[in-house]
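agent> step 3/5: call structure_predict on target 'Carboxypeptidase' (Glutamicibacter uratoxydans).
agent> reason: downstream docking stage needs a structural representation; sequence fetched in step 2, passing through unchanged.
tool.input:
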Amino acid sequence: MAAKKSPFFDTATTLGKIVAFFGISALCGLLTAGMMVPVAALAKTGMTTGNNIVTALPSSFEALPISEPSQILDAKGKTIATFYEQNREPVKLDEISPYMRKAIVSVEDERFYEHKGIDPKGIARAVVGNLTGSSRSGASTLTQQYVNNLLVNNQELTGSEESTVSGQKDLAAKIRELKYATSIEKTMSKDEILEGYLNLVLFSGREYGVQAASQYFYSVDAKDLNLQQSAMLAGMVQLPNVYNPINNPERSLDRRNKVLGNMLRTGAITKKEYDKAVKSGLELKQSKSPSGCIAAGDNAYFCDYVTKLITSDESFGKTKKDRENLLYRGGLQIKTTLNSSLNKQAAKDARKSIDPKAKSNTDVASAIVSVEPGTGNILAMAQNTEYVPDKGLGQTMLNYTVERAYGGAGGFQAGSTMKPYTTLAWLKEGHHMYDKINAKRPYFSPTSTWRASCLPGGQTITGGSQPWQPRNASAGFYRTMTVDTGLFWSINSATIQEANRLDLCNISDYANALGLVDYDGGEGKPISPKSPSFIIGTPKVTPLAQAAAFATFANKGEFCEPRALTSVTDKSGNEYKVKPTTCSQQVDPQDISDLNGTLQKIATKRVSKGRVAGPIAGKTGTNNYSTSTWFVGYTTGISTAAWVGRVDKTAAEEANTLQGSMINNVRAPRTLDSSTYAAPLWVDFMEEAVLEYDRSSLGAARRAPVVKKETSSDSSSSSDSKSDSSSKSDSSKESSSDSKSSKSDSSSKSDSSSKSSKSDSGNSGNNGNGKGKGDKSDD
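tool.output (status=ok):
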C-alpha cells in the first residue's frame, strides 16, 4: 500500500498549496540573498537544503567542450562521412537570424536582457500559476537553461549518473543551477550567453543547436531563417518531441503561432509581420545528415576502415570508449588519402563483375583496392556489396579488402600471385630470368628436405602423410623452360623446381618484407617457409596487402606501408599523430626490373590486350577449385588488386568449387580462373584509373647473352633461351610444342585455362597449391 500523503505537503490540497507558496517564496528570497556572496568550493558535508547549500556551492564550474560532429574527408577535402552523437554546427550570433534571436527570448525568457541570471518575477509568476492552475510551468531563465545544458553535456562526457535534466533535478541541483547562472552573468555578456544557448540546446532527436536544426527542418542556414521558421524552432525547445513538426504538425503549428503571439506582445515584431506569418503553413523542407559510414555510399568500406584505425589507436585516447567519444563528439577533421571519384568507379566495376543482387551470388563477391607506389596512400577501397547492418542479398558490413582486426573478412588464398617472391629469391641468389629450369613433374615425399636457413637445423621437410605431387593445368609444360617462361605461363612445376634449388627463407623473407601476412587460421602471422606449399599460394592474404606489395614492384623495390590518414585535427586545431609515409628499400632495383620484364608481358599480352595504357605489369592468381581468384597489377602511379571469390566457403575443396557453378545467374566455365572475372574487373577499372597517375618506365630487364652458334640438338628448346621481351610472343612459341588446349592461355576466355586431361587429375591433397585435385589453371 502506498504511503498516505500528508495534507500539509500535498500541493493538490489548498493547505498544501499555501504552504508551498510561502515555502518557495522564502526560498526565492534566500537564494537571492545567498547568491550575492562569493563562496568557497563545495565541502563534503551533510548539508542538503536551504542557505547551507547556497553558501557551500562553488561560484563556477568547468564547462567541458560541447559535442561537435567529426568529418572524414577525401584527398581533395570532400566530406565522405559525418559522425555524431549530437549533430551540431556552432555558429556566431551574427550568423543567426535576428528573428530567431527575438523568438527564443520572447518565448523562453522575455526579461532576459533585464535580469542577472535569475528572474524573481518569473519565479513568482510560475509559482502562482502552478499553485492556482491545473498546468505547470517553469521559471528558468535562458541563462539557467544554458547552465543546465552545460551540466548535461559535462555528465555525458564524464559518464556521471547525476541528473540535471528538467523534471528530474532535486532541490540541491536546482539551487546549484541558480548560483551558476548568477556567476555566469558576471563573466559573460548577454549576447555571449544567447549565442552559447542557441548552439547548445536540443531541438529534435540528435539535432542540437540552431544551425543543425535549420538545416534539418528547412535546409537553410541559421542566418537565413525567416520569421515563421524561427518561431517554429523556438517553440520546439521546451518539448522537442511533443512539438516536432514532422511527427506532430498540428501541435507544432499551434505552438509556433503562440510564439508569434508572444513576439507581437513583447514588441519583437509588428502586427503586419504577425498577420502574414501566422497565416503560413509549416513549409518544411527536410534535409537529413545521417551519422556514420552507412551514409557514405560507395565510400562506406573505406570509411569503416578509417573508423577502425582511429578507435584502435591509443593516439586518440587511452581506451576504446575514449576514442569513440572523440570520434563522435570531438569535432575531428579527418583527412584521408581516398580518391573518392575513383572509388565510386571501383564500386561500380565491382558490381558489374559480380552482381550483388543475383540470387546465385549469395557467397560470391568482388573487391578492388588501390595503393599509390612511393607513398602507400590508399586510393580506392571498394566492393560489390552494400554497407548496411542487414544481412540481405548483397548486403554486409564486412570489408573484403582488409584483415579482421579492421572489420575485414580476413584474407583469401593468394594462389599464383605468390610466385613472384620465388622469382625474387631466384634473382637474389645470383640467377637470371633467362636461366633454364627443368620443370618436370614434381614428386616430393613427406620427408623430402628443403633448404630453410631461418628454421631449426637450416631445413624443413615436405610434411604431410602423402607425397606432394603438384600438377600443371596442361601436360605440355612438364619440360625444360626459362624461368621467364615459367612465370609468364604461371607453371606450378617451374616455380616448385626453382624453389627446390633455393633457400625457402629467402622466398618467405621477401613476402614478409613486402607486408604480406598469412591469416590462414584466423590470426595473422608471418609467411612461414615451414610448409613448401606456400610458394604456390596457400597463405590467406588481404587484397590491401597484395596491392601494397605489388606497389613495391612499381617503385623500384621500395616498399611503402599502406596508409589511409594524412592528418587529424580537432575543433581547437590540435593535431593527432597519424602514420607518416613509411617506405624502405627491400628489393634490388635491377631484380625488380628483371621481374617486371615478365610481369609486363603478362599484363600486356594476356590481360589488357591494348585496353590499359602502359607500361603496366601484374600477376594472375587462382587457388584450387577457384574459390579465390586474383589479378594484381600496376603502373608506376597506381597498384590495384582485383579479387573475386567466395567469402564464407573459402576452403579449397571440391564442395566449394566455383568451377562450373552458377555465378551472375548463369553457368560459369569449368575452366574458371583469374581470367574469368578478376582480370576483366582489373581491366575495367584500370582502363580509366591509370590515366590519373604516373606511367613511367618499369625498368629494363637483363637479356640473355647472345649465343653465337646453336647446335641442332638445342633447337627444340631455343625459344626458351630467348627472353619474352623479344618481338615474338611466347604464346606462338609454346603452341608449337603444347597441346591445343594450352593455346587458350592467350585467349580472352582464360589466362591459362585449358581443360585438364584426365591424366592430369593428380592425387587428392597433393597438387596445385597443395590442396585439391589439380583440375585447375596454374594461375
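agent> step 4/5: record observation. Residues 14-34 form the longest helix (21 residues).
agent> proceeding.
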